[in-house]
Amino acid sequence: MDAAFTEEQHTIRRTLRTLLDKRCGPDEVKAAVRTPPGYDEELWRELAGRLHLPGLALPAVYGGAGRGPTELALACAETGRTVLPSPLIATAALAAPLILALGSERQRAGLLPALASGELTGTLAVPGGRLPTALALTGPNDGDWAGGGRAGGIQAHKEEGGTGWRLYGEAGQVLNGHTAEVLVVAAHTGGFARSSTRLFLVRADGAAGAVGLRRTRQAVMDETRPQARLELRDVPAELLGEEGGRTASAVGPALAATGVAAAAALAVEAVGAAGAALAGTAAYVGERERFGRPVGSCQAVRRRLADLYVTLQAARSAAYHAAWTAGRGPLAADGSSGAYGSGPGPTGRAGERGTAVLALAQALEALRAVAAEAVQLPGGIGFGWERAAQLYFTRAAGDELLLGPAHRLRARAVEEAGLFAGAGRGAGRTAGLPAGVDA
């Protein structure tokens, strides 16, 4: 593995850092999250138009920059450093890869250029708050997580005498779900007889949105990741991919492969946030004086900062390795290889499928540890909302609630690696953990 960044990767990071340093300070972040969309729309247009951020990992034939998951993840290190509120993860790491992997040529040509340019934003809607399950981050996604024919999920049925589909149900914790114009919705089809999970496209353009669709922004711990509840009442939808094509059998692998690239991006984003929080904390304790000398000169404080530095560096190494692994395969136009496919590329080998999941767990734990000290070490002032430390603290807690918890991510990585395949089967024990250890 060559861990050195290319000159192009350095350029992406430098350019993005310069822009975000000017436009995305703590005060700007707090102002942006209180707007109706939950992010600075003008800054998003600049990131999309000037830096092509949402299209960074999309092929040039669909209006993208022709790079890959590695470059997208490295860009996320800078967005994490400033705790940027934006639809980047929802659009570039969730919706666009699935459309690329499963969509028909007409759907790709019609949607991906607009997503790449930032003209449209997208997201993935999964019922029951089961995003980690759908992406195979906390367990296999071959179950009935989309509804299984029961209440509480999202059901899809064909229109009578037509080729269209209708969706009925609800989904919560949908990233940027209240503003995304393109919704990739996971729904259950076939009842009990021919049960399957399919992905559908719902266009929510315009102020009114799709007929029968109600979107409500939810109150969440981390306001920099706005989430919404979607209620679908006979909403018209379009099957992602060709009718009768390979989508039924390919949905699970495509979601799992998308989860690999998304986990790598989120891991790098988390270590970017942790690095900024640690740097800010070290600077503060170096300046703040107590009993006539800087707080940072105390041996106990220095030891705690050193422990955090070691934890962060280990998490950063794992996250960058996951980003490198996710981008090893060539990015075909149909997304059939690399991080967007389930073939013989790096995401298809059992020894590497858990790399991104394990890196995400380690990054979330590092961010949690650093953010906690960023609040505690500055003393009472660390608990004030006016301090930037609160942004990192809520990001750490919110990400683990949305994607984890970390111990289940680790259990999934262990299961993928097959480390305890021969362990005894304890009743109620989480798969992948050694005997006698519960999740």
UniProtKB/TrEMBL annotation:
Q: Which SUPFAM superfamilies match?
A: Acyl-CoA dehydrogenase C-terminal domain-like, Acyl-CoA dehydrogenase NM domain-like
Cofactor(s) of this protein: FAD
Biological source species: Streptomyces siderophoricus
Q: Where is the Acyl-CoA dehydrogenase/oxidase N-terminal domain?
A: 6-119
Instruction: Report the residue ranges that make up the Acyl-CoA dehydrogenase/oxidase C-terminal domain in this protein.
Output: 264-410
Q: What domain of life is recorded for the organism?
A: Bacteria
InterPro entries found in the cross-reference section? Acyl-CoA_Oxase/DH_mid-dom_sf, AcylCo_DH-like_C, AcylCo_DH/oxidase_C, AcylCoA_DH/ox_N, AcylCoA_DH/ox_N_sf, AcylCoA_DH/oxidase_NM_dom_sf
Keywords tagged on the record: FAD, Flavoprotein, Oxidoreductase
Q: Which family does it belong to?
A: Belongs to the acyl-CoA dehydrogenase family.
Taxonomy of the source species:
Bacteria, Bacillati, Actinomycetota, Actinomycetes, Kitasatosporales
Mind telling me what this protein is named?
Answer: Acyl-CoA/acyl-ACP dehydrogenase
